[in-house]
Amino acid sequence: MVSWEIIHRATSFISEEMGVALRRSALSPNIRERADHSCAIIDANQRIVAQAEHIPVHLGSLRIGIKNLLNYLKKENIELNEGDMIFANDPYLTGTHLNDVTVISGIYYNGKLIGYAANKAHHVDIGGPVFGSINPQATTIYEEGEIVPPVKLVEKGKIRDDILKMFLSNVKSPLTNEGDLKAQIAANLTGIRRVKELIDKYGIEQTIYGWDNSIKYGREMALKEISAWPKGEFSAEDYLETGPEESDLISIYASIKISNDNITISYPKLIRQIKKPLNAVFGVTFAASSFAIRSLMKGDVPTNEGLYSTINVIADEGTLLNAKPPAPVSGGNLETSQRIVDVILLALSKAMPDKIPAASSGTMMNVMLGGYDKNGNPWAYYETIGGGSGARPNGNGISGVHTNMTNTMNTPIEVTENTYPMLFTSYKIREGSGGDGKYKGGDGIVRSFKVFYSSRLAVMASRFLTNPYGLFNGKPGKPSKLTIIRKNGKIEDVKPMSIIELYADDEVIIETPGGGGYG
Question: What is the 3-state secondary structure (H, E, C) of 198-246?
Fold first, then answer.
């Protein structure tokens, strides 16, 4: 009998290899360079066995999304047969926002369903009025882009051209979307093949036994970590910006209860969902909440159903953090998720001051840009820009990094300039933007560029009105700043949640927040 640990490690490597296949096959810099995707292996009981640690907002949300999708298929009598792949992006099912396209396949062995291979990847454009599809001024989800319910993209091993054409006819850069979607198909094929090889080597019973014990091990390791934490209830409040004025600030209040066998995170004072794209579907709220808890554990706690089973998240339906259709939700996945992490860590700093850092930049600083080149071809660019991480109890924060829920790679400016009609004029550390203290917060980033042709810029960001907090008398980090210098020399300050028309040689200067200081 083979040790279950071999199955456990092998399955984790399979999910990682799926990610490698997806990233290397993708066409868009957003996936190829930034690695804005996630991959997982799920057992026949809908439990995540292994998930590659790619991007935090996909980690917990994929657990919610897979269950929703499989339950939808059952309800609609849609069979996921061998050789089939379902894809969807409806955030109320898949758990994030429209740009994240989920592809799921059944893993069959000798005609028996053993589990599922699944991945999620952020497509740069998914239709709608804004290049990049993340519309800061959307009041309903219908203003954010194309909604794809669960439908068979691949049937009996062949791509359905009718479905593919329908999908691509609604996006602004169909060649890129097609390449990324086929990369997702390749990733699932890789996962299916590797799981079958695992079963060939060790047998079905040993594989399932290994998966069961992998989940059990994940729970045991998570509970071991939690058992060492102070018990009790801890709460905090932070604010989310929904517009340019002080009156646009919305409170997010979190209460965390730590017991011996689980952690319960509740949001008891939420406002109702709003007609702005900062609502979060429950998958996002679970992802951000579970990320904050997971980040306080040792690195060897596996990210699977065992870990997730120790975390309970409570948010009333129809509120900002558990929205219902037709609320717009693109920014809930981006900015609201960041604030969820900030408020949870602020609450837990009262319980574990020696473990919790000050606030990091607290915004993904989402930049969506697009237009038409000299040949009339459409293009769409998407980027999240890092900032400073918060100072730690034992050291300074890190400058110029992606933090918390925006933990992707950056897109090298050489790649961007080679792909899009843009020229970067600076990319450097924003000196002095980190908060002072015994330990200093990391500095943010200055990233600026010019466009060659008339373009449309959309900005979804936060921490313009509020600063990343310091802890224990540490000073806060500097807030966000975004400026446009027009070709004629006129300078304009850009507000968050804006859509701006750019003209040739206009320069956009983005300054991201620094982290808070500690002590």
Answer: HHHHHCHHHHHHHHHHHHHHHHHHHHHHHHCCCCEEEEEEEEEECCCCH
Cα gap 383→2, rounded to integer Å = 45
CA distances from 43 to 113, 210, 211, 256 (A): 9, 11, 8, 30
The CA distance from 198 to 49, in Å, is 14
pLDDT reported for residue 2: 81
Give Cα separations from 27 to 174, 176, 383, 412, 419 (angstroms). Answer: 11, 6, 15, 15, 10
Is the pTM value of this prediction over 0.70? yes
Closest of 47, 23, 45 to residue 36, by C-alpha: 23
CA dihedral 165, 167, 170, 176 (to 10 degrees): -90
Spatial distance between the Cα atoms of 462 and 496, rounded to a whole number of angstroms: 6
Instruction: Identify the residue whose tokens are 């540490």.
Output: 474
pLDDT-based confidence at residue 244 (cuts at 50, 70, 90) = confident
Residue 63 near residue 45 (C-beta atoms within 8 A): no
Separation CA 303–CA 61 (nearest Å): 12
pLDDT > 80? residue 300: yes
Find how far residue 451's CA is from the centre of its chain.
27
Nearest 5°: CA angle at 476, between 471 and 479?
A: 145
Domain 4-220 in CATH 3.30.450? The answer is yes
**Which residues are CB-contacts of 241 (< 8 A; sequence separation ≥ 6)?**
248, 249, 250, 335, 462, 463, 464, 465, 466, 496, 497
SS3 sequence, 260-271? CCCEEEECCCCC
* Distance from C-alpha of 147 to C-alpha of 167, rounded to nearest angstrom: 9
Place of tokens 């129809």: 318
Show the CA angle centred on residue 94, arms to residues 92 and 100, nearest 5°.
110
Unique residue bearing structure tokens 């740009």 = 99
Contact 50, 116 (CB under 8 A): no
Domain chopping of the chain, boundaries: 4-220, 357-519
- DSSP SS3 for 379: strand
